[in-house]
# Entry
Amino acid sequence: MRLSTASLGLLVIGACLLICLELSWISEGSIRKTEEINKDSLSEQARGYYELYENIWKDLKYFPVPESTEDEEAEVSFENSWLFERTYGGLYGHEGTDLMPSVEKSGYYPVVSMTDGVVEKVGWLEKGGWRIGIRSIHDVYFYYAHLSSYAEDFREGDVIEAGQLLGYMGDTGYGKEEGTTGQFPVHLHVGIYVRNEEIPELAVNPYWFLKYLEQYKLKWSFS
Ligand SMILES: [Zn+2]
# Structure
């Protein structure tokens, strides 16, 4: 059987109409479903996640790299590289956000704490290099890695204020030997980890939190 162009066209239009009707029916269905959801009916687990994320927002105060009042060229940029492939010491996903400097000089950019909190971990890590981990008031762990040096001789338990100088952006890490540098470009790796009774450690994507914090950059004099 041969179809004329006109009847073929009609067939196509008919098929499109059917698909459109089907789609609108599906979306109406899902709209009805959304209306049925309210916060009280959230499962215990979902509420747990909601609260974990809420804790992060509660504690954030400053972007971790201040703006230079002296050097207009000194900026940092970052992209959403959540779970991008990394290969040092085996294949894994990137659990953090990398702040990349426009001035690629180790020890140039100050790194400040995004939150109030307490020093939980400090010192050398094979992947993270010179790193410092701050536990914030609402129990969130903020991890700053690859520092060139520390601002002071921090110890576990030291009380930290939001905006306090932790150290300087560098390229330490990717080496068993303490002080290894030069394995990657200078940058600040930021990690955020939450926990509760059921979940001992959950890495969350820092990108959106850093995007939010861009409006809270400290202005410091460095060049
Ligand atoms: Zn990183």
